[in-house]
């Protein structure tokens, strides 16, 4: 067996798409959208795994991240000397190789034909690929593994489970026909909270942005997005103004962006991805100076709930961050199986501190919230 590596999906699009089922989320069309966004500090690798007859038996999609200080709450160290050491290390940063799509929830990067190859043989070829990479990755993450009963390769290739990875999701009963049905099913305290948020929302105006609007507001969208991102403990991948334009250009009505205006000034936005029965609240941005008075964040969440119900969706994806706030809305955790391999003592210590910092920021009381009557 052998493998071939490409740095752009356009160089292998025919073989790549031919191997995948029709409309698979890893198709070249979808991968190219992210490439065209030209994200900083992110490169891509597309691996075709070939059997003895040179037939494609599997594919692997990788995002290679150069992890630097902007990707987390820098600095982590409180001690002056340790901060100096941390600063010196982060000038060079670390390389993290992710098999999967960091921009989307539940997006594995591996797909193979079990009649031609098994997981162990796939990982065996990927080990060869890792060793040939320049620069060498300090960590390799296999994201959203979808065969929980097939994990023999984890120990065989020295991976470890990356626990506590979850997203918050709402499951919307078919009996709900509008936002009022959602509110009626909340306990009194939570329903009162919704009414207060909606009342404080005035006089902000929400309107959907067309492609031309997204182009016109692209820099503002990026700035609003970054204002949210800088408050997150960990941000492995950071999008830019191109991303929102490319997503709308390609996915059209399946990618919807709503702007929040105060006296004609854009002070916030939400981006949303629609796929089958799922409505995903994707990236948001806001000017935090207006958040406390107008409850911007919660109103964006309520708008997503309202849209998902109105469109007849059965699931609403809320994302990985701000778990307590999303639990208050009615979100529940959905866990994923990730596996990581870390090379070296310093990267291993760094991952340990980053992970703990993320969990501390995520909070510990979120799983105690019970907003619904039943």
Radius of gyration: 22 Å
**How many β-strand runs?**
15
Fraction of helical residues: 25-40%
Low-confidence stretches: none
Overall geometric form: globular
The proportion of strand residues reads 25-35%
One letter per element, helices H and strands E, the order comes to: EHHEEHEEHEHEEHHEHHHEEEHHEHEEH
Terminus-to-terminus distance: 55 Å
The main pleated sheet reads as:
8 strands, mixed
Count of runs of 4 or more consecutive helical residues: 14
Structural class: alpha+beta
- Overall pLDDT: 94
Describe it for me?
The protein is of the alpha+beta class. The mean pLDDT is 94. It has 14 helices and 15 strands. The termini are far apart.
Note the main attributes of this structure.
single chain, 374 residues, alpha+beta, eight-stranded mixed β-sheet, seven-stranded mixed β-sheet, 14 helices, 38% helix, 25% strand
Structure at a glance:
By secondary structure, the protein is of the alpha+beta class. The protein contains 14 helices and 15 strands.
Write the layout of secondary structure elements.
Elements: E1 2-6, H1 13-19, H2 28-36, E2 42-50, E3 56-67, H3 80-92, E4 94-99, E5 110-112, H4 119-132, E6 139-142, H5 152-156, E7 160-162, E8 166-171, H6 179-184, H7 188-201, E9 205-209, H8 211-216, H9 218-229, H10 241-251, E10 255-262, E11 265-275, E12 278-286, H11 291-294, H12 296-310, E13 315-319, H13 323-329, E14 332-335, E15 338-342, H14 345-362
Parallel strand pairs: 4-6, 12-13
Antiparallel strand pairs: 1-2, 2-3, 3-4, 3-5, 6-15, 7-15, 8-13, 8-14, 9-10, 10-11, 11-12
Helix pairs in contact: 7-12, 9-10
């Amino acid at each position: 067996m052998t493998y071939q590596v490409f740095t752009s999906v356009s160089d292998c699009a025919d073989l790549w798409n031919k191997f995948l089922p029709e409309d698979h989320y890893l198709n070249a069309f979808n991968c190219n959208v992210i490439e065209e966004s030209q994200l900083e500090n992110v490169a891509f690798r597309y691996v075709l795994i070939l059997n003895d007859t040179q037939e494609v038996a599997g594919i692997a999609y990788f995002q290679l991240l150069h992890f630097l200080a902007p990707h987390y709450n820098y600095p982590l160290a409180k001690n002056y000397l340790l901060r100096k050491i941390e600063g010196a290390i982060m000038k060079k940063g670390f390389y993290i190789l992710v098999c999967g799509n960091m921009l989307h929830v539940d997006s594995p990067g591996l797909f193979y034909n079990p009649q031609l190859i098994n997981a162990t043989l796939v990982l065996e070829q990927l080990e060869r690929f890792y060793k040939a990479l320049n620069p060498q990755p300090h960590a390799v993450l296999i994201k959203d593994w979808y065969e929980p009963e097939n994990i023999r390769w984890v120990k065989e290739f020295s991976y470890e489970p990356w626990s506590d990875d979850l997203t918050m999701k709402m499951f919307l009963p078919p009996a709900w026909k509008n936002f009022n049905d959602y509110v009626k099913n909340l306990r009194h305290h939570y329903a009162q909270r919704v009414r207060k948020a909606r009342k404080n929302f005035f006089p902000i105006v929400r309107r959907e942005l067309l492609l031309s609007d997204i182009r016109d507001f692209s820099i503002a969208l990026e700035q609003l997005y970054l204002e949210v991102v800088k408050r997150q403990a960990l941000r492995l991948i950071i999008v830019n103004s191109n991303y929102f334009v490319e997503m709308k250009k390609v996915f059209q009505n399946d990618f919807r962006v709503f702007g929040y205006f105060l006296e004609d000034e854009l002070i916030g936005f939400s981006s949303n991805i629609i796929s089958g029965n799922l409505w995903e609240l994707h990236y948001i941005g806001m000017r935090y100076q207006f958040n406390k008075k107008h409850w911007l964040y919660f109103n964006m969440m309520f708008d997503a709930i309202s849209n998902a119900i109105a469109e007849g969706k059965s699931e609403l994806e809320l994302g990985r961050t701000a778990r307590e706030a999303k639990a208050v809305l009615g979100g529940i955790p959905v866990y994923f199986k990730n596996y990581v391999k870390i090379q070296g003592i310093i990267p291993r210590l760094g991952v340990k501190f980053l992970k703990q910092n993320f969990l501390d920021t995520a909070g510990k009381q979120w799983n105690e919230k019970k907003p619904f009557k039943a």
